What does this fold into?
Amino acid sequence: MKSEVFSYPEALRSCVCCPRECRANRLSGELGYCRTGAGFQIGSICLHQGEEPVISGENGICNVFFTHCNLHCCYCQNHQISRNDGPQIEYILTLDEVTQRIESLLDQGASALGFVSPSHVIPQVQAIIMALQEKRQTPVTVYNTHAYDRVDSLKSLASLIRVWLPDLKYMDSGLAQGLSGAPDYPRIATAAIREMVRQKGLDLKLNTRGEIQEGVIVRHLVLPGQVENSKNVLRFLAREISPDITISLMAQYYPTPHVAGLDGLNRSVTPAEYDEVLDEMDCLGMENGWVQDLDSKDTYQPDFAESHPFEF
Ligand code: SF4
It folds into this structure.
């Protein structure tokens, strides 16, 4: 069912796609907080093997990386494409060009299609999925988000998205304001995750090859010096959702050039910090999901200037 509220391109006439609710007329060139227009502004469309095993599958997921963002974390690991003061790398494509590129990667064996940081381009995501459906392409769709999403927008995507892949970054408003300019992030993101679980339940549906077909996986990136925040994220998930929720704990934080001079953010997570977070997971009885190795920070440093940003 096509949403009337977030359909493309009408929804961009007075944009309330995300919690910023700027009401910018993106169709007439007005730009809101995300500084994103009404077209298809793309950082990369590529095969990616480095997601959780059920998502990457045997052949990798076809990921569509959009440029700009409605959250704007100062430490963003994809800073080359996400910054609203002008991404370094951006391709302006037509809908046809986007779907052709996706189809060519699906032909190479990808069975899933991921939309990365899509909260500010929900009408465009709808348009891409519906254009693919018209071509009888129905990959498993994955909505890979920081979770600064409106519940209404998630409802509008309910029939189009099969896998919700949200982060839960902060349970601390001050931290959310300081690092991402969004003091309401804990309230917004927890409501978003509740809605995702309401739609899909807690169990992951896998095919015979172990590839995800439907479900919710929550990611959490541990930040240096923020162990208490990480513990509170895990406590929320275990106590307010369920200890059975599938979680992907990530250790890949590395200081980008934008935070290299900032105390606290200019280093990676220490083994002691990571162990403390892992201990909390154990205490809470959270056993479903994946825990990244601490040395993954050395291999996760994408370069979007390359045609394959995740191959080194
Ligand atoms: S998507 Fe962009 S323009 Fe629309 S409400 Fe969010 S930040 Fe504002």
Residues 15-18, 20-22, 24, 32-34, 36, 70, 120 surround iron/sulfur cluster (CB under 6 Å).
